[in-house]
Each structure stands twice: as C-alpha cells, then as structure tokens.
Amino acid sequence: MGEPDKPPSIKFHYIKSNFFRTVRCDGVVGGLNSQGDLIVNVYSERSPIPRSVVHELSPDMSLGPEMGRKVRDGVVREVEISFSMNLQMAKSMRDWIDKCVIEAEEIKKKYDIMRSTSKGDSQQPN
Q1: Distances from the Cα of 36 to the Cαs of 2, 39, 80, in angstroms?
Q2: Which of 77, 78, 94, 74 is CA-nearest to residue 86?
Q3: Per-residue CA distances from 78 to 6, 26, 70, 83 (Å)
Q4: Can you tell me the distance from the alpha carbon of 74 to that of 70, in angstroms, rounded to the nearest whole number?
Q5: What is the DSSP letter of 17?
Q6: Burial class (CB in 10 A: 0-12, 13-18, 19+), 99
Q7: Of the candidates 86, 103, 110, which has an alpha carbon nearest to the alpha carbon of residue 38?
Q8: What predicted TM-score, i.e. pTM, was given to this entire model?
Q9: Beta-carbon neighbour count of residue 90 at 10 Å?
Q10: Please, are residues 89 and 61 in contact by the beta-carbon 8 Å criterion?
Q11: Could you report the per-residue pLDDT of 3-16, keeping only the tens digit for each?
C-alpha cells in the first residue's frame, strides 16, 4: 500500500500595503451597518494640541516667550481607522483576541511570580 494522500494545502503570503501603519488603540466605537456587518472605529486619545500659539518677537526677530495659546477643552479622540467585518469574521477575531489575552495573562503571571521571587532573593536578612 502506498503513502496516504497529503491533504490539500494553500500558502498565504502577507504583504504590507502602501497604507500600512501601526496605530495605538485606546478604544473603539461603532455598531452594525444596514447589512449587519460590524463597524469598528479605532481611536487613540490625547491632549488637544494648540489651535494657535502667539510668541513675542525679539528685536533681532528671534522667537521670544510665549504670550498665549488657544486650545480646545477636554480630550481628543482621534479616529485612526475604521473597518467593517461580517459576523463570522467578528467571531473569529473575538476568538483570536480571547486566545491572545489568555496567553498575555499567563506570561504576565509568570513575570510577576519571577519578579516577586527575585525581590525576595535580593533582600538582606536583618
């Protein structure tokens, strides 16, 4: 009898698009669209940057001290990216995130145990 047939396979290549970038995610806002797809808008939070700043000019035309600025009140939530996905993809993404969270918690637990053990070892007896 010959070797068992290999299952069919497919290779995926990951190529970064021209618009690829890494963004900070401090939160998400979104919902469902009319087709039932999940819409996720990822934002980062930051303090507002000044709308304008006024500086005094020195006699030699160099920049002098700041005289005033106009800044928005509150916190800016800058929407970095918006993406949509069907329900199947949303569930797949949820499962992947759950797996990553469990893994991160296990690593953190090991690190915390190692850290607390090393602190105990470095203490001198009285």
Answers
A1: 49, 9, 23
A2: 94
A3: 49, 10, 19, 15
A4: 13
A5: -
A6: exposed
A7: 86
A8: 0.67
A9: 15
A10: no
A11: 778 889 999 999 99
- Which whole number is the average pLDDT over 50-78? 94
Residue 52 sits at φ, ψ, to 5 deg, of: -155, 155
Element of type H or E holding 120: helix 87-122
Q: Where are the beta strands (DSSP E) in the chain?
A: 27-32, 38-46, 52-57, 63-70, 76-85
Asked if 65 contacts 58 with a C-beta cutoff of 8 angstroms, the reply is: no
Cβ–Cβ < 8 Å for 37, 55: no
**Tens digit of pLDDT for each residue in 85-109?**
999 999 999 999 999 999 999 999 9
Return d(Cα 2, Cα 50) in angstroms, integer: 74
Distance of alpha carbon 53 from alpha carbon 68, whole angstroms: 6
